[in-house]
Design a protein that fits this description.
TIM Barrel; 15 strands; 3-stranded antiparallel sheet; 365 residues; globular
């Protein structure tokens, strides 16, 4: 099946493959810049940018951790990440993934626009006020992530009422993705909520509001999956986990090895301080949590609003900011290693260029 260019707002992506935003530090300048260079859409994760380049650009840290939201999601670091990604991809489209659950979400959107993001992608909540923060940047395209037609309807209705606009594209993420899910634990295993069963209702909802692209995400692995979702009416796909298995992925070698060595049964859903189930690799951290010997929760970075300054972290037994950043740093004992349900299928590292070739032409190409 021949793939068409993906048009998001005023931006043309040659190959309709969006690299999923992965944080802390998994998709920064090297990965996102390389994906855009090869014709896909590279996506920079804005969460925890204070950890970039050994916390070089932050004002204050405590115990080697960025202090408060302003340092955890560092504006200066984000500028440098975009600047270095541009050295790889030039003026090709680059996106920023900004979780709606982040404290100071609006400021981070403005920071990303100022840093040079062409497209803002937002999930982890319903971003009903997303356009409010990009009024000074009319060329920046806005792409919410949803898990149902109902969620898309709410977003479109609010955006039309308040801002007289609709999304420039929408990503529907099924329950096989890595990290946080837009579903309850039970729904993640329910036939009704499989990605392929979410497509048709969302396409119908899009028709009510105009005509903008639908991007399928969650568990998409190879050319066969891409062809399947294009045939179902999607305009593009988003793929995260496979990009962890690239040389250019910004994660440490130790992080990559945790995923490369994971077995199918190691990849599980966990409770998260964000309030959604999250998927990752069961590591020593979870044994420590169960035995109540996990690292102490101090809430230094104040990362996400649903955590209520560490209250939810204490309820589930870990601080998500600290544990994700430990994974980024390669702390196998204490890190939280997110991956999609297919992470166990990664068996070696390849280049972004080779991966894009496999996704377009098949595994044996």
């Amino acid at each position: 099946m021949s793939l068409k260019n993906l048009i998001i707002g005023k931006h043309k992506i040659e190959i309709p493959i969006v690299q999923g935003g992965m944080g802390v530090g998994i998709s920064w300048d090297q990965l996102a810049g390389s994906v855009s260079k090869e014709g896909g859409l590279g996506v920079i994760s804005t969460v925890g940018t204070g950890y970039y380049d050994n916390e070089k650009y932050i004002q204050k840290s405590i115990n080697n951790r960025p202090y408060e939201t302003i340092n955890f999601n560092s504006k200066e670091s984000l500028k440098c990440i975009f600047k270095n990604a541009r050295k790889l991809c030039g003026d090709k489209p680059l996106a920023a993934n900004i979780l709606y659950a982040l404290n100071d979400y609006g400021s981070i959107v403005k920071d990303a626009c100022e840093a040079g993001a062409d497209i803002i992608i937002t999930g982890a909540g319903l971003p009903t006020n997303m356009p409010e923060f990009t009024e000074r940047y009319p060329d920046v395209a806005l792409v919410p992530i949803v898990s149902s037609a109902k969620a898309l309807k709410i977003i479109c209705k609010r955006w039309m009422q308040r801002y007289d606009r609709v999304p420039d594209a929408v990503i529907v993420e099924g329950p096989l993705s890595g990290g946080h899910q837009g579903f309850t634990y039970q729904q993640c295993f329910d036939e009704e909520y499989k990605l392929e069963n979410l497509i048709s209702p969302i396409l119908e909802e899009i028709k009510k509001w105009g005509d903008f692209p639908l991007i399928a995400a969650g568990g998409i692995w190879d050319k066969n999956d891409i062809d399947k979702f294009i045939a179902l009416g999607c305009d593009a796909v988003q793929i995260g986990t496979r990009f962890i298995g690239t040389f250019e992925c910004d994660a440490s070698e130790k992080f990559k090895n945790v995923i490369l060595n994971a077995k199918k049964e190691d990849i599980q859903l966990f409770k998260s301080p964000v309030g959604y189930p999250a998927r990752g690799v069961r590591t020593e951290l979870f044994n420590k949590i169960e035995n109540k010997i996990a690292p102490k929760i101090k809430c230094i970075s104040n990362c996400v609003s649903p955590c209520h300054r560490g209250i939810e972290a204490k309820a589930v037994g870990y601080c998500i900011a600290d544990r994700l950043s430990d994974a980024f740093r390669g702390d196998v004992e204490n890190g939280l290693f997110f991956t999609g349900s297919n992470g166990y299928r990664l068996d070696k590292l390849i280049s972004v260029k080779e991966l894009m070739d496999k996704l377009l032409n098949g595994e044996d190409h």
